[in-house]
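Here is the promised in-class demo. Please do not try to memorize the tokens; focus on the logic of going from shape to residues.
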């Protein structure tokens, strides 16, 4: 019964995945201090979009990390708000006014990322995603996939008894 419960939760997770656009993980380092990620989004009017992520890394007081969306600076990480060592910071940035319908570009730039033989600066943005409204009706392919998966789970569960 426990296995069925876990699989049902996974199916619900599949359906809920339509509520966010995942950009995953970006890291700027000494040798790659400028990273861009392009993505397409179908922007819906009268909805507030947020870029959410955790950030952490190893930068000193002369360094900063700038985050741009479509050429607009939306967030700056410097010595006053960095997540040093094991300390991760969670961030939620309202990006509705910077997000375009269609193609968008998120760029992360490390400023003054210079190290030496004992110090190598880096900065990570993890669990990076943009929230999206639930689109109704839910994608037909996703509904079919979930129904097939649920039917298969129930069939195997009943046949094992």
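The designed amino acids, position by position:
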């Amino acid at each position: 019964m426990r296995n069925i419960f876990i699989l049902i939760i996974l199916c619900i997770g599949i359906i809920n995945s339509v509520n966010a656009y995942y950009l995953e993980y970006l890291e700027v380092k000494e040798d790659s201090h400028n990273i861009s990620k392009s993505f397409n989004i179908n922007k819906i009017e009268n909805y507030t979009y947020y870029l959410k992520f955790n950030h952490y890394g190893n930068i000193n007081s002369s360094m900063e990390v700038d985050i741009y969306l479509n050429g607009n600076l939306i967030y700056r990480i410097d010595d006053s708000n960095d997540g040093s060592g094991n300390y991760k910071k969670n961030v939620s940035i309202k990006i509705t006014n910077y997000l375009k319908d269609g193609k968008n570009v998120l760029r992360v730039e490390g400023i003054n990322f210079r190290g030496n033989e004992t110090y190598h600066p880096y900065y990570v943005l993890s669990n990076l995603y943009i929230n999206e409204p639930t689109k109704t009706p839910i994608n037909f392919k996703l509904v079919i996939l979930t129904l097939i998966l649920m039917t298969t789970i129930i069939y195997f569960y009943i046949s094992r008894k």
